[in-house]
Amino acid sequence: MRCPQSYLKALAKASASEKAQHVEAALLDNIPEGMGPQFETKRFVPLVMMHEFKALLFSNPIDSRKRLEEGGTAQFRAIREGFESSEDIDDPPETAPSKRIESPFPGYERPLLGVLAAIGTGRATIRQQCPHFNDWLKSQEALPGVLTSQV
After folding, report:
1. Which residue has the higher pLDDT, 17 or 11?
2. 143 Cβ neighbours under 8 A, 6+ residues apart
3. Mean pLDDT of all residues belonging to the chain
4. What is the DSSP annotation of 38-84?
């Protein structure tokens, strides 16, 4: 089944979060049906991130910069301020989040420095700056029997 062109054009103008929500809704419509009657749909909460993990590092450019290396603060902050949220830093492939990080920080090594920067930024800041990701985390935390940590 093909999507109507009008739908694709409207989706092209949508934010990263809106695009993700459309894909997640489609997954919710189609995956459970294909999994059979034993599938627990209430525990299936898809997360589609329309960006690389590295976009989350733009949640706090100064803290992330400290973990990446000295320098590049103004450029890193300018990149983040050019978008409504860190989650919107994505297209096109030439300017993907990893490419944007490599520009002010040529020594950026994946995945080590990215993980260290994310840890330094902290979950609270990432959740505040990435509302779609935060909403998904909340849905996971609300599931019965799910333990949450304050890490």
Report:
1. 17
2. 42, 43, 45
3. 76
4. T--GGG------SS-GGGGGGGSHHHHHHHH-SS-HHHHHHHHHTSS
Residue matched to tokens 């019965």: 144
Give the global pTM.
Answer: 0.66
Do 60 and 17 share a domain, yes or no?
A: no
**pLDDT tens readout for residues 47-89:** 888 777 777 777 776 555 555 555 566 777 788 888 888 888 8
The distance from CA 67 to its chain's CA centroid, rounded to whole angstroms, is 19
Report CA 109 to chain centroid distance, whole Å: 20
Range of the domain at 30: 5-48
Angle between helices 73-81 and 61-68 (to 10 degrees): 140
Q: Is residue 81 part of a domain?
A: yes
SS3 107: coil
Q: What percent of the chain has pLDDT over 90?
A: 2
- The pLDDT assigned to 1 comes to 45
Q: Please check whether residues 101 and 114 belong to one and the same domain.
A: yes
Q: Is the domain of 57 the same as that of 31?
A: no
Q: Is 86 exposed, middle or buried (0-12, 13-18, 19+ CB in 10 A)?
A: buried
Quote the number of domains for the chain: 2
